[in-house]
Amino acid sequence: MSYSDTITKLNQSAGRPRMSKAYELAGAGGFIRPDLLAAKLEAIQMGEFPRMHLQLRERPRLAEALLFAQWKSYQSGGLQKLAREMVDAFPQRIGLRSVRNMKPMGRTGFTDIQMWTLVEGVDSRVLRAMGYPAVDIDESVADEARKDLVLGGRFRNPDEWRDFAVEKFITMVPGYLAHLCQSEFAEFSERENDLWCFDGFLDALIDYLDRHAAVTAGSIADTSIRERMANEFSFTQSQRIAIRIIGDTRIGKTTIATNLCAMWPGKMRYLEVPSGQDMSAFDRALVQSLGELPTPTGTTQHLRQMAQYCYRATGLMLVVDEAQFLYPSNFTERTRPRRLDFLRTAFIDQHVPCVLITTPQGIEDWASFDEKTHYNSDQFKGRLSLTVDFPKKVPEEDVNKVAVHLMRGYPLAWAQKIAGRAFNTPTSLKTVQAIYLRACWYSQGAHREQISIEDLRAACDDIVPLALVGDLPGKVPVTKTAPTTPSTRKGFAGMSRPSDFKDTDEAVRGRRDDAVLLKSS
After folding, report:
1. Over the stretch 180-192, which tens digit does the pLDDT of each residue have?
2. CA–CA separation, 354 vs 172, rounded Å?
3. Which of 315, 343, 302 is nearest to 42 (CA)?
4. Per-residue pLDDT tens for 435-482?
């Protein structure tokens, strides 16, 4: 089936009219439909567009960058926010190259001679953007526009050129990316009439993927569990297989999975299976994992088929959290696991890489279902290449890292106090977060810009009283800021002693002016 036939079929099945322009397909908000991008990538891989196939081979990560842009178009701020982020990440690329290479010689900016040199290289596209719409009528009209720029006093300062380029770039990016991802006529090559206000946009977009991943990774602590899950995700995606991760509800699986998917949306997407037995709810969640919101005109069967097509055509990995809900919670002897059967036949059997994350309790529920219904789970289990079991108890080092991450900018001893209180609780990581949030709440109530030692002491006593953890011996030193490396087991001793709070309080008072502040917003 050709690309045009695929697009027609997708639009008809979705109850959408066929639109001729990719800008119209993008809509006013600049959304990139996942099915249209999938159709284009599939057509390229099938050899329908040889030039674009060659361009993808020359830039191996370009498909990942386009899938990243599709995901970004559905996030808060959309593609315009992506444009602003790229301006901040690559300031040396924004604006006309001739302007960037010329230093102003006048006191207030460029001289007349410099302005003549600059405007001679300005073509009709830039002139139209500057407010001269009639420059295409005749070359003399364009010359008059250039003369007006020199004599009119506009764009004398490099900052004016830059602000102008930034404004146009942010306005142009949504339509440009929508056209690039959804139109069969848009090739993946930089042309004269593409984004003239930004040098090498596609190469910069590919470079931006790693920057985005690094920033997103910093939003959570780099624990041993996170490192192991990242390795298993990479293994699954590269080998295009299915694996299962089993871990208790208290080790942070969901937080880590959502963070990894947010780091690499051009490679993987996150799906949280809704509870219950409603297949339509599962279909809607499946489509939302691609970014697109279900429309009232689309049937759940269409949503299911569209999601299956998108994952198969793009090579995205599906991360299925709360996989225990793939089995029905209420069942009889004749009940079939429709969700599981669909995932197995439409995804795993089609070599779509899948990671199933579940709890040990979920495995027990699956066994009860098999026993009562006589369902043959071996068909599903036999397709899993690996089962990874995580420990029930969160390592002490991880608890320390989470506390240090939350309390970054504060003395190390403060983070150690939180970790010491939380480590022996059943939900140690959640307890660390609860203590931090409670301390922030106390600080906000007192109209302080930072957490004080009194806030931290009260929060620890509220969430985990001393009677629950005992009075541990020892003390810990106080440093100005939390180090990047985790502390050792010895450093945890004495986190809960009231005397430690007193010593720390006195030490902090002596270096209050030097401490790094952290707003508790």
Report:
1. 999 888 998 766 5
2. 36
3. 315
4. 999 999 999 999 999 999 999 999 999 999 875 554 333 333 333 334
Q: What angle do CA 301, 302, 308 make, to 5 degrees?
A: 95
Residue found by looking up tokens 């977009």 in the block: 205
Residue of 61, 3, 75, 62 whose CA lies nearest to 32: 75
- Return d(Cα 220, Cα 212) in angstroms, integer: 14
Exposure letters 5-24 (e unless 16+ CB within 10 A, then b): ebbeebbebbeeeeeeebbe
Percent of the chain's residues with pLDDT above 70: 82
Rounded to 5°, angle at Cα 29 from 97 and 199:
10
CB atoms within 10 A of CB 428: 24
Return d(Cα 95, Cα 166) in angstroms, integer: 7
In this structure, the chain runs to a length of 521
What pLDDT shows up at residue 24? 40
Nearest to 371 by CA among 339, 335, 340, 343: 335
Contact assessment for residue 248 and residue 269, using Cβ atoms and an 8 Å cutoff: no
pTM over 0.85: no
How is 398-421 classified by DSSP, letter by letter? HHHHHHHHHTTTS-HHHHHHHHHH
Could you read off the pLDDT of 301-317 as tens digits, one per residue? 888 889 999 999 999 99
pLDDT value, residue 13: 57
* The residue type at 490: K
